[in-house]
Amino acid sequence: MGNYLLVNKILSKIEFKIKPNKNIRKEYLYRIKKNFYKLINHEKKFVNSLTVFKDIEESDFDTIEKLSTIDTMSKISIGFLINQICKNLNRKNH
Prior knowledge:
By secondary structure, the protein is mainly alpha-helical. It has one domain. The protein contains five helices and two strands; from the N terminus they run αβααβαα. The protein has a two-stranded antiparallel ribbon. It is globular, with a radius of gyration of 16 Å.
């Protein structure tokens, strides 16, 4: 399976409560809730609750738990992580 198809397969297992094409700056209810959770020191729990995973294996839950312990990760860091995983998978297939 090519890297492009692999990434699409992975992304199909993720459902975002706030769609990626939405402007988060205009989602005022989200911002109010996030600030409330930040105030009570549960911001990460709130942000993580906005993502729903479907059709994943038990071992995937373990990975999600490990990743959720990372306090912050930029979009570029996440992209780099995905890129490195795909590159290594592609090498194993050859």
